[in-house]
Amino acid sequence: MRLIMLGPPGAGKGTQAQILVDRYGIVQLSTGDMLRAAVAAGTEIGKKAKAVMDAGELVSDEIVVGIVADRIDQPDARNGFVLDGFPRTIAQAEALEAMLAEKGVAIDAVIEFQVDESKLVDRIVKRAKDAEAAGQPVRKDDNPDVFVKRLAEFRALTAALSPFYRSRGLLKVVDGMAPIGDVTESIRRAVEETSAA
Ligand code: AMP
After folding, report:
1. DSSP 8-state symbol, 167
2. Active site residues
3. CA pair distance 139, 143, nearest whole angstrom
4. Which atom of ligand 1 is nearest to the CA of 92?
5. How far apart are CA 3 and CA 190, in angstroms?
6. Measured in angstroms, how far is the CA atom of residue 145 from the centroid of ligand 1?
């Protein structure tokens, strides 16, 4: 199974992606996590990405497509994956299609999280507080100022993926403001519809 989680920051993509990993034995491919790991390790990619990420802007398509192409080729991704935070631009979506076509595989469904944007900033602030309370690193971009920029990037570049995937018959919309368990259930239904089709 190959899925894409689509939605603005704070929509719950990562939470649901983890649940899918446990349920379907697939891997979560989060470009945000991969980039943060690169920043922490001080790699060339990390050095290029750090300031851009801290400002809430998007890292270049070239860098992100490169890291996804490498990751998708690893043996653990062969069974399936859930992409979380990628693609974020039409160019990335087109690169992904080409990458998968070369391997003779395709995306099964794109899960779009519909959310009340006015509530997202509270979720981000809570995520930062929870991380701090748990002694985990707090993301530099999980604060209200940078959040505004991240949401603007989503609207300007990522929202266009919704019609892109609808036109391919892949888009499944779920209510991202529902309780976590209900969102999981909506995704389960959407995924089962896809496998039954
Ligand atoms: P996320 O963890 O998905 O919220 O991503 C955190 C940050 O990493 C974003 O604000 C971007 O700076 C960068 N990033 C993650 N995924 C992508 C992507 N697909 N394209 C460009 N930048 C990305």
Report:
1. T
2. 13, 88, 127, 139, 150
3. 8
4. 19
5. 11
6. 16
